[in-house]
From TrEMBL:
<dbReference type="InterPro" id="IPR016181">
    <property type="entry name" value="Acyl_CoA_acyltransferase"/>
</dbReference>
<dbReference type="Pfam" id="PF00583">
    <property type="entry name" value="Acetyltransf_1"/>
</dbReference>
<dbReference type="GO" id="GO:0016747">
    <property type="term" value="F:acyltransferase activity, transferring groups other than amino-acyl groups"/>
</dbReference>
<dbReference type="InterPro" id="IPR052523">
    <property type="entry name" value="Trichothecene_AcTrans"/>
</dbReference>
<protein>
    <recommendedName>
        <fullName>N-acetyltransferase domain-containing protein</fullName>
    </recommendedName>
</protein>
<dbReference type="InterPro" id="IPR000182">
    <property type="entry name" value="GNAT_dom"/>
</dbReference>
<feature type="domain" description="N-acetyltransferase">
    <location>
        <begin position="59"/>
        <end position="224"/>
    </location>
</feature>
């Protein structure tokens, strides 16, 4: 949980900000285990050079699927929310988002890690935990600048969405990619409803290649509104 409870200025922006959002988030995910896993076909130098383009594709795909961009304290913390019924891997926006460029850059194996290894495992957890419920908010990405961490900015962005979701009677889904982020989400009332491994037997917990490695752990997490719950 945050050590500083100072109220943040939380602002929502339209999808025209997708380029800025991508450039803001990209450096915050350089060492994120699933990102390292997905981009593992690239050399370290090539991976770092490709981060902005990769996040540009992800965030543009979100924008094309009605994403909501929310930031706290002048982009110290930035989140990308997908509304109910929308998906990043929507085949109708796949081309426009630039995923063909990902295929060219990462190859078939890299795209398999992104679209099958990760997404299929996540979908399986959703199917089990949501028990057929198809409407939910999805926290696709959230990142806080190193200099602003420990102030509870991500938590405040999340609680704003929880207030909306409570009125709608809808749950919120996310995947935590580190123990630290998992614990932040737990502090916001999320429960771990499943886990899955990326690259078990071939990758380290960091997402780097490692023969016999444990793989990178992903925690599937769900928050459900309770009647008369106060999330403000």
């Amino acid at each position: 949980m945050a050590s500083n409870n100072t109220s943040a200025q939380v602002t929502t922006h339209d999808t025209d900000h997708h380029v800025h959002v991508a450039k803001t988030l990209s450096p915050l995910f350089v060492d994120d285990p699933p990102v390292r896993f997905i981009l593992s076909s690239l050399s370290e130098e090539a991976r770092l050079a490709y981060m902005d383009d990769y996040f540009g594709t992800l965030v543009k795909a979100a924008a094309l699927n009605s994403a909501e961009f929310v930031e706290a304290n002048d982009w110290d913390c930035t989140a990308v929310w997908l509304p109910p019924g929308k998906r990043i891997d929507n085949p109708w926006t796949w081309w426009s988002a630039g995923f063909v460029g990902c295929l060219w850059k990462l190859g078939v194996a890299g795209c398999k890690r992104m679209m099958i290894d990760y997404q299929s495992a996540s979908d399986k957890c959703k199917h089990q935990a949501l028990a057929g419920m198809e409407s939910y908010h999805y926290l696709f990405l959230v990142g806080t600048k190193v200099s602003a961490r420990g102030r509870g900015l991500a938590s405040q962005i999340i609680r704003k969405k929880q207030a909306q979701a409570t009125k709608e009677g809808l749950p919120i889904w996310l995947e935590a990619t580190t123990e630290r982020s998992r614990d932040v989400y737990k502090g916001c009332g999320f429960d771990v409803v499943g886990t899955f491994k990326l690259g078990e037997g071939h990758f380290a917990s960091t997402g780097d290649k490692e023969d016999g490695g444990p793989g990178a752990t992903i925690w599937a997490m769900l928050w459900k509104p309770e009647k008369d719950e106060d999330v403000m």
